[in-house]
Amino acid sequence: MNTPRIDSGRASTGVRSPIIINQLGTEVRASLIDHWSRPLIIDHPAERPAWDIAPEADVLLTRPAAGWSKAPTGKPRGWPYGLRWIQTASTGVDFFPEWLLDGPVVTVGRGISANAIA
């Protein structure tokens, strides 16, 4: 297992910084920018299809409103590319195409709307 050694709040030089596709906006970007892992954050343009991501990305941060309603029924060629993790800012995954779940770990924002709903 390649566990990073943390010195002074920064990853050791032998660990590659994660590449994150951000479809969640500037607030999320601001939260991630100072993380000790020094992630490379790629802000996904709103006019680009949500599934059209950089193949070298490790992480996809997405939400249902990021254009997924127009996703093709079949998975794009090469999907899931180099993704190792998909985090959705929603509780469920029924809004997303089935092929989104084909590959890396997918986590959801369970409880993200609890206060608003209550």
- Which series of helices and strands comes N to C? EEEHEEEEH
Strand order of the largest sheet: 4-3-5-6-7
Number of helices: 2
Distance between the termini: 42 Å
Low-confidence stretches: 1-6
Q: Helical residue percent?
A: under 10%
How would you characterize the largest beta sheet? 5 strands, parallel
Number of strands: 7
Judged by helices, strands and strand pairing, the structural class is mainly beta
Averaging pLDDT over every residue, what do you get? 84
Beta fraction: 15-25%
What is the CA-atom radius of gyration, in angstroms? Answer: 15 Å
* Inertia-based shape: globular
What oligomeric arrangement do these chains adopt?
A: single chain
Task: Write up this protein.
The protein has helices spanning about 25-30, 115, and strands spanning about 5, 10, 20, 40-45, 60, 85-90, 105. It has about 120 residues and is mainly β. A 5-stranded parallel beta sheet has the order 4-3-5-6-7, with helices on one face. It has a two-stranded antiparallel sheet with strand order 1-2. The radius of gyration is 15 Å and the shape is globular. It starts with 5 loop residues before the first strand and ends with a helix.
